[in-house]
Amino acid sequence: MRELSAAEARYLIVGAYAVSLHARPRATGDLDIWVEPTAENAARVHRALEAFGAPLQDLSEADLRTPGIVYQIGVAPRRIDVLTSLTGVSFDEAWRDRVSGKMGDLDCPFIGREQLIRNKRALGRPRDLADLELLG
């Protein structure tokens, strides 16, 4: 996240880490980062991933502009998933309603509670329904 913030990329932490911020911690095998899929932001995200040392031979800026892409770095339980879309939520709405939270010593943008609930409802998987119970 440090590299994304330094590149002034628009991103939101979503998934289990966001559930942990809004409710309580739960086990997960990855960190989900949702990036805005625009040309300008894709360039920023690509630069940030390069600075992070991510293997980019199979990821282009065009991929980061394309909704529905999931780019994975590493393996569970320390995997990072970079997402270009999120079910049931638009990036613009989620960005507007974002909240700040800590990841280590870094302030990071997280998806807001209501947008997270919309996403979890739209997904409807057993773990998402369990997350909805945690989120109240």
Task: Explain what you see.
The protein has helices spanning 2-6, 16-22, 39-52, 61-64, 91-96, 113-123, 126-135, and strands at 11-14, 30-35, 70-73, 79-83, 99-103, 106-110. By secondary structure, the protein is of the alpha+beta class. A four-stranded mixed beta sheet has the order 1-2-4-3. A two-stranded antiparallel ribbon has the order 5-6. A hairpin with a 2-residue loop joins strand 5 and strand 6. The protein is globular and about 40 Å long. It starts with a helix and ends with a helix. The model has no long low-confidence stretch (mean pLDDT 97).
Supply database-style keywords:
NT_sf, Nucleotidyltransferase family protein, 7 helices, 136 residues
In short:
The protein is α+β, with helices and mostly antiparallel strands. Helices cover 42% and strands 21% of the residues. The two termini are 28 Å apart.
